[in-house]
Amino acid sequence: MTDLTTKEEKQIEKDQNNTYILKEYADQVGEKKYLIKAGEVETICNILVMPKLLELVQKRCRFIARNQQYHAKDKKEPLDGAYLIYDTEEKHLYYQPQNDYNAARERIGMGILFAEYLKSVSDTELYDSLMKYKTYIEREIINPETGEVFNEVGRDTLVLRLYNYPWIALFYIKLYELTKEIRNLTVATRILRTYYQKGGAKFYAIGIPVVEIITYLSNEGKSKEKEEILSYLKEHAEFIIKTGTNYPCHEVYYEQSIVAPAAEFLFDIYKVTKEEQYLIEAKRQSEILELFNGLQPDYHLYEVSIRHWDGFWFGKYQMYGDTFPHYWSALTGNVYRKRAEEMKDTFYLKKAEASYRGVLSLFREDGSASCAMVYPITVNGKRTHFYDPYANDQDWGLYFMLNSIHK
User: Fold this and answer.
1) How many Å apart are CA 322 and CA 326, to the nearest integer?
2) Which terminal residue of the chain, N or C, has fewer Cβ atoms less than 10 Å from its own Cβ?
3) Helix (H, G, I), strand (E, B) or coil at 372
4) Domain limits, the chain
5) Amino acid 13: pLDDT
6) What is the CA radius of gyration of the chain?
């Protein structure tokens, strides 16, 4: 075997299990490529060495606080406090009111990452940044008294987007975990109530905090609210079971991030109810979800779900093509982890970790990031195979892995 980064050839002997294993110490961050030869067969293995997770999260959060939060000179500006897109190529903030470049929607993942990280680390700079962001969210993006969630600054009502509701609810759940303030739990409850009143039970939303909302309402003695939300959740679960594999189309017709929320939701509702029907269907849904993944010997592809066109919708260069990785691929890691926990299957714990690790190449050692890796060599005759320069919505991937070690 040859390490293509050093051109060093090594002969590998079998161990006692008749398996060839190479163990090397990763002494620096970066990519390592190996040319593997076994008789007449050759293949290449690409490995990426990354900083330790907490170090990477800290650098990412600091980068967001120092580079991606907008500080207006006039405090009446709507964007004051918002976490925005950052162009890592031109080194500046970027904002457009259109959906995937605006100051709401998927970008709430930055606030969720902050709150998750600050649960275990004391950092005044990051905490102050998060509280300014919360002020912005309550001024521009939600009505905390009614639970209504808006699509853009100014409490814009032109677009009703159900995806946004559970994300903001999760943000407030994380604030509750961080501060223990009952108001944050109350706001999360109002948001989920409004989500379901607007038809959420027939929508395959991402990130509904099923276990958290039921657990915390129970812990706080809010039995009325708990039973109300649980009834909504069970109605949602019944719809998913009835629908089976006839998945409804959402913003696209069919993709991994429609199957993954179905499986994850069912594992979660089983966790809080212990009703066997939910576990049976969760298992079936998770097995369908596996079909989106491969095990190629490349850090872009190993347990990374196939996804399409994310770089077009969220990136600077708006290129079509498969994205390997895109952060939503780690939704599969969430499902694997929950399957392992509920079914006592350690095999899926290893798959979950691989899925989480598979999206880490979107983050840089200096804390900058990319929203998607457009993997093909060319797309429509144009050279691709690049990480898009926009640090946009990728922080969900980092949050998922951090959250998995906090469980």
Assistant:
1) 9
2) C
3) coil
4) 1-49, 52-208, 293-407
5) 83
6) 22
